[in-house]
Amino acid sequence: MRNLALFILITINFFHAAEFNSGDYFPNQVIVKLGSETERIMDNSRSTSIPQLDVMLNQFGVTEVVPLFPQPRTRRTDLPDINRIYLLKYGSNISTLSVANAIEQNSSVVYAEPRYRRYESEVPNDPDFSNQWHLNKIMA
């Protein structure tokens, strides 16, 4: 029974994800994860230290390369490395999907995707939800 419920949930999410259109992501913003062999990029940089990728980013008019998860002082080795995930902002009028697909072709890139908008898909069914003031404080 549990497997059936999980299958139904995954199927619903799959079909919901297939309904995305260009209005479901932010224009001119791409999220990129670089491979573990690459150097980390510091804040307010426009260079990745990967010459081929830097040429491509210049062609797209990238104005910012922002780390989504700034490097912690200590890194736990039992957790995945999320320090090489960046938000790229660019100024050209090329479609976001085209930019993401082109960037993803670089061998140093693990993935590149548009920065999708997130929407609430469920309304909490907890009758005491309005009493849980802390959820709004942490933007949950």
Largest sheet properties:
4 strands, antiparallel
**Please, what is the average pLDDT?**
79
Question: Roughly what fraction of the amino acids lie in strands?
Answer: 15-25%
Order of helices and strands: HEHEEHEH
- Unreliable stretches (pLDDT < 50, length at least 5) are 13-20
Given the structure, what is the number of helices?
4
Across the major sheet, the strand order is: 2-3-1-4
CA radius of gyration: 19 Å
**Spatial gap, N to C terminus:** 30 Å
Which overall shape is indicated by the principal axes computed on the Cα atoms?
globular
Q: What structural class should be given to the helix and strand makeup?
A: alpha+beta
Total strands: 4
Amount of helix: 25-40%
Briefly summarize what is shown:
The protein has 140 residues and is α+β, with helices and mostly antiparallel strands. The protein has helices at 2-17, 51-60, 96-104, 133-137; strands at residues 25-34, 62-67, 85-90, 109-116.
Describe the structure.
- The chain is an alpha+beta fold and 140 residues long.
- It contains four helices and four strands; from the N terminus they run αβαββαβα.
- It has helices at 2-17, 51-60, 96-104, 133-137, and strands spanning 25-34, 62-67, 85-90, 109-116.
- The protein has a four-stranded antiparallel beta sheet.
- The radius of gyration is 19 Å and the shape is globular.
